[in-house]
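TICKET: design request
STATUS: open
ATTACHED STRUCTURE:
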């Protein structure tokens, strides 16, 4: 669970294969006779934290950090005005999918990762649930664990699911399935209601190409899909349709899902449209089609492939109040580096704000203008 690598100038600890803590060798040697490794890791100020999978610097966000969990798309909680609350415990992915909308895994554009303490995440989730049920007494809440990366990278995923189930009526998760095994499925039965499994081809070589990993084990994913379908957890197969790459594979995935019994409680398929994002990955030769064309293609296969919020019990309800208006100007303190180069994250009025176009650093103040506040997600520009 905790590995140690003593090097000439630093000591590197890796916790649960994800959290990498680097401590200067001289600092470690000063304290190792009197304190355990865990105490040194916990209490020393002279350390740097990285994501062991991506190699990027990482912030571990606790309540004591003073960083709110509302306001950013990369971490925390997102309330889009429905009974479904998105729970994003961390960034970082073990795959390098060639079509990834957020350029995750080994990235050219992402420079920072985030991980939220499980206690803090659950406490803040409970506050949103209480807020919504204050206005909608019998509201059924779904906690959907997703994010800019792979949720099962999160070291405390099982604990998170179990604790969310105490507060929510439905707990679901989006995953590529590579980090799931039979033991994990057994641990999650009775707590996790649905797994949305990202699987994009049943051809081994094509699956490796799409995942950006030569060691991608398609047979493992197929086996895990069957295990999920046979368990108490519902299975939804969620491929990304990339025209020019996996057109025929979509039909094969539908046949596969029907054969293994996906969708016992909800619809079995959630086919997603490939969208070309500015900071995402763009596979050579991939065709970008309109939503009208995308839905027409789905209808040609089967009308039931068109999904609606009602299929998952999603309904509109009171959302958290917005703290800033578009165009509003204010001065904030910057507390973290942003996901992209040149971006920073600031805090004000119990919200985090993504600030672009700033040369300022951590703990500096900057004047900003709010550019976006949709769904309590705040983007601002330095002025």
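STATUS: resolved
RESOLUTION: sequence designed for all positions
ATTACHED SEQUENCE:
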């Amino acid at each position: 669970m905790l590995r140690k690598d003593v090097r000439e100038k630093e000591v590197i600890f890796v916790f649960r294969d994800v959290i990498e803590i680097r401590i200067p060798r001289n600092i470690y040697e000063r304290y190792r006779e009197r304190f355990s490794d865990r105490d040194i890791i916990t209490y020393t100020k002279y350390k740097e934290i990285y994501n062991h999978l991506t190699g990027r610097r990482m912030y571990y966000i606790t309540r004591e950090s003073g960083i709110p969990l509302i306001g950013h798309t990369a971490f925390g909680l997102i309330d889009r005005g429905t009974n479904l609350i998105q729970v994003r415990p961390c960034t970082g992915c073990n795959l390098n999918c060639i079509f990834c909308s957020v350029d995750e895994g080994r990235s050219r554009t992402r420079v920072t990762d985030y991980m939220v303490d499980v206690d803090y995440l659950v406490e803040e989730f409970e506050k949103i649930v209480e807020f919504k049920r204050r206005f909608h007494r019998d509201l059924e809440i779904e906690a959907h664990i997703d994010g800019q990366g792979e949720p099962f990278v999160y070291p405390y995923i099982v604990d998170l699911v179990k604790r969310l189930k105490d507060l929510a009526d439905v707990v679901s998760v989006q995953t590529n399935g590579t980090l799931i095994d039979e033991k994990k499925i057994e641990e999650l039965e009775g707590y996790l209601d649905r797994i949305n499994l990202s699987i994009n081809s049943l051809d081994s070589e094509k699956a490796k190409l799409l995942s950006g990993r030569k060691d991608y084990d398609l047979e493992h994913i197929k086996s895990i899909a069957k295990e999920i379908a046979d368990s108490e957890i519902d299975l939804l197969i969620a491929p990304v349709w990339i025209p020019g790459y996996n057109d025929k594979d979509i039909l094969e995935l539908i046949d596969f899902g029907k054969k293994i019994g996906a969708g016992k409680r909800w619809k079995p398929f959630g086919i997603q449209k490939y969208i070309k994002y500015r900071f995402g990955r763009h596979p050579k030769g991939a065709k970008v089609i309109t939503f009208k064309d995308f839905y027409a293609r789905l209808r040609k296969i089967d009308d039931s492939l068109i999904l609606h919020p009602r299929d998952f019990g999603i309904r509109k309800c009171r959302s958290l109040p917005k703290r800033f208006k578009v165009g509003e100007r204010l001065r904030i303190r910057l507390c973290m580096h942003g996901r992209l180069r040149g971006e920073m994250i600031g805090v004000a009025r119990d919200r985090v704000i993504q600030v672009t176009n700033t040369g300022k650093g951590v703990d500096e103040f900057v004047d900003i203008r709010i550019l976006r506040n949709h769904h309590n997600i705040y983007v601002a520009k330095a002025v």
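CLOSING REMARK: The two ends are 46 Å apart (CA to CA). The chain has a mean pLDDT of 97.
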